[in-house]
Amino acid sequence: QVQLQESGPGLVLPSQTLSLTCTVSGGSITTGYYSWNWIRQSTGKGLEWMGAIHYDGTPYYSPSLKSRTSIFRDTSRNQFSLTITSVTPDDRAVYYCAGDGGAGGGRNRGRPPAAFGSWGQGTQATGSW
């Protein structure tokens, strides 16, 4: 069973950079055809897909966040991470990592998958910035 655990310092000051890490157990992040995603939910909104990194190491980003977002991985630790620079109050949200279970066959890229199979517990980022 694939499980995801979020961790990390959250907002790092004074750089105004939000950083989170997701540790995956029960499956390898390099196994085809999984994608590993970051999603957030702010008050009054639905889930917003931020981006993903696929089993082959290729990242993809939501166009609205591309300039400020980086998704990368550490295969030795079976982890993938998210950073957002120059955060504003619009970035206050609950952040989730999620895997799609490989259902897209590696072909669904650059957009959110149709469904997610495994979720992290969520990290609330609602500080004053």
Q: What keywords describe this structure?
A:
0% helix, four-stranded antiparallel beta sheet, mainly beta, six-stranded antiparallel beta sheet, 129 residues
> Taking Cα atoms only, what radius of gyration do you get, to the nearest Å?
14 Å
Low-confidence stretches: none
User: Quick one: biggest sheet?
Assistant: 6 strands, antiparallel
The general outline is globular
Element pattern in H and E: EEEEEEEEEE
Q: Give the oligomer, counting copies of the same chain as homo and different chains as hetero.
A: single chain
**Which range best describes the helical content: under 10%, 10-25%, 25-40%, 40-55%, 55-70% or over 70%?**
under 10%
Given helix and strand content, the structural type is mainly beta
Q: Work out the helix count.
A: 0
Give the DSSP E fraction (strand runs of 2 or more residues): over 45%
The end-to-end distance, rounded to whole angstroms, is 37 Å
Average pLDDT reading: 92
β-strand number: 10
What does this structure look like?
- By secondary structure, the protein is mainly beta.
- The mean pLDDT is 92.
- The chain starts with a strand and ends with a strand.
- Strands 3, 4, 5, 8, 9 and 10 form a six-stranded antiparallel sheet that branches.
- Helices cover 0% and strands 47% of the residues.
- It has no helices and ten strands.
- A hairpin with a 4-residue loop joins strand 6 and strand 7.
